[in-house]
Amino acid sequence: MTEKKDTFYITTPIYYPSDVPHLGSAYPTVVCDFIARWHRLHERKTYFLTGTDEHGGGVVPAAEEHGMSPSEWVDHIVPRWKELWERLEISNDDFIRTSEERHKQGVQPFMAKLMESGDVYLGTYEGWYCDRCEEFKGDDELVDGKCPIHDRPVTRLQEENYFFRLSDYNERLLKLYEDRPDFLQPKRAYNEMYSLLKQGLQDQPITRTSLTWGIQSPWNDEHIIYVWIEALQNYITALGYPDGELFGRCWPADVHVIGKEIVRHHAVVWPAMLMSVGLPLPKHVFAHGWLLVGGEKISKSGRGITDISPYELVDEYGLDAYRYQFLRAGSWWEDGNFSLEDMQARYNAELANDLGNLVSRTLNMVERYCEGVVPQPQVIESPEEGLRSAVESAAEEADVLVGDLKVTDAVVRIWEIVRYANRYLVEREPWKLAKDEDNSPLVAGVLAVTAEALTALAALLSPVMPIAMKDLWSRLGFEGDPKLGAASPSGNRVRVGEALFPRIEA
Ligand code: MSP
Fold first, then answer.
1. Whose CA is nearest to atom 10 of ligand 1?
2. Mind listing the pLDDT tens digit for each residue in 381-412?
């Protein structure tokens, strides 16, 4: 199946729909969307998957609280997730819900294969269980007897479970980590998992008997597949595993983007399960940092909860500024703090001033000095060549950075075009040159090359700000969606329009 793979496949984790999405869940979704759009812009076949993990994560208590069954609850709340993704212009190719029949249709043959491989046995488990993590915790993981992630009491559980012989994969996983040091990034996550592997793995419970909400194991009706084991399979069931055509084209995933607290599942348990059933492993697992507000993780579980909803920010600043903020300011590889003050300051300094002024200045000069038509680049001197090559090198380097998942750095690198173009205009002073008729060939050169830079920016920034950049593209006289390597804007009639990013007072 692998020889048919021709598509860059990126996934977000599937979110627990115990509540509506918050800024913290929107963050990785926006970043993955940026990466997917970036690859599509570069004409690479891309498949971008997101979805919801409906058999766990507090769905049952949330349903109870609202007087609904779990299935009524997820049907009620999941549309709110889809709505937000639409509002944020998330371009996912599919949205998998683990309550869907197609998920079950993939999970059951996968589980059957796991059983056939001889890696599953019946045993008894006793341990501390956090019902929010949906996971047993070792004594050493608890803080004051509580789950360190949810700050809630854990319960002592003893159950008959089926187990997966994870310990048998210890050596093969170590070898994977040694042979492919970029399998798991960043280094911090890699080191953590590597030392876990060095300490030695224990077998993994993969079914539960005390639950009813979930997917039954194919070999014993009383056993419900443990939610994590089933949820991980979304990455292939959404592609139509075992024999879907998409599965052949997309698998193995190029990258599973995940938060840093769910690394063990994705970088230890999941690869071992794939090895067991004989499927290729994802090429990369990337564990980003958390978005913090006032120093705490934004989450549904009560700690660090914030009242700011993504909708409020989008209403206040616009969709494009929202996306820009999280792509530019979030530090992605590390934890990063979000604050309204920062968003406000960045909006005015970078969007209203840096980019907004560059656009309005350039379009206004084309209007005033060239009757609204972008001139031919009549005179090209070394400053013009400088701007052209600044655009080219930023575009190339940003592509390498996105390939390395350094999204914030990529946006910063593209922004250097904006800064360079502004400095260039200040240096060239076309508004002064235009006072003398003799300079008109040079003025034409300056405006043509600046419009070329804006054309490139509209394309390069379209994965960040899809609506505003489409608008800029049309103001530059082009039709359709921004494209890389488009024809020169010379000869296009421009439209000045309102400020792209009007200043916002605090
Ligand atoms: N359902 C599991 C994932 C299963 S994937 C097979 C889960 N769900 S979750 O809703 O709790 O979290 C989903 C993702 O959202 C995680 O990767 C988590 O790190 C991310 N985020 C939730 N809050 C976040 C922040 N405040 N900041 C960054 N990411 C955050 O875990």
1. 15
2. 999 999 999 999 999 999 999 999 999 999 99
Q: In this structure, which residue's CA is closest to atom 7 in ligand 1?
A: 15
Output the CA 398–ligand 1 centroid distance in Å.
27
| Pocket of ligand 1 contains residue 58 by CB under 6 Å | no
User: 90 C-alpha to center of ligand 1: Å?
Assistant: 17
Q: What is the pTM of this model?
A: 0.95
Inter-residue long-range contacts of 463-466, CB under 8 Å, 24+ positions, other chains counted? 463/33, 463/34, 463/35, 463/37, 463/38, 463/41, 464/34, 464/320, 464/323, 464/324, 464/327, 464/328, 464/411, 464/414, 465/320, 465/321, 465/323, 465/324, 466/37, 466/89, 466/320, 466/323
Is the C-beta atom of 290 inside 6 A of ligand 1? Answer: yes
Residue 305: pLDDT band (50, 70, 90) is: very low
Question: Ligand 1: which residue has its CA nearest to atom 9?
Answer: 15
Contact 136, 205 (CB under 8 A): yes
**For residue 139, what pLDDT is reported?**
86
